[in-house]
Amino acid sequence: MRRPHSFSRPTCQALELFGLEIARARRERRWTAVELAERAGVSRTTLHKLEMGDPTVAIGTAFEVATLLGIPLFGADRAELSDLVARSRDRLTLLPARVRQTAEVDNAF
Q: Alpha carbon of 23 to those of 10, 29, 34, 55, 89: distances in Å?
């Protein structure tokens, strides 16, 4: 049996904002929830959860719906998103591949 996961207030607020943006963009395009759900390949219930900011909706589903509606991910258009991915890969390459837990040092003598 899974324990319920609690989410931080900023996470819940971000999810709510994202859901509101999905609902706004859908209504601006005059698409019904059923139409958007069909285009995204998800159920109407999943789309409703996304619009309500439910944290259990898969991130891939959320991003696909946003893309269908023309909502920029990470504040970038499609071309910029590719550049952001390349830069993030470059930065990650500069960091160690593994992170080891450091031993605590007792400075109280």
A: 20, 10, 12, 16, 32
How many residues are recorded in the chain? 109
Fold of 9-93: 434 Repressor (Amino-terminal Domain) (1.10.260)
- Residue 71 has what DSSP assignment? P
> Who contacts 94 (Cβ-Cβ below 8 Å, separation ≥6)?
none
pLDDT in tens, 27-80: 999 999 999 999 999 999 999 999 999 999 999 999 999 999 999 998 888 789
Residue type, 54: D
Report how far residue 26's alpha carbon sits from residue 2's, in angstroms, rounded to the nearest whole number: 33
Domain boundaries, the chain: 9-93
Could you tell me the two tokens for 85? Answer: 């991915």
User: What would the two tokens of residue 7 be?
Assistant: 């989410």
What digits encode the pLDDT tens for the residues 6-28?
Answer: 899 999 999 999 999 999 999 99
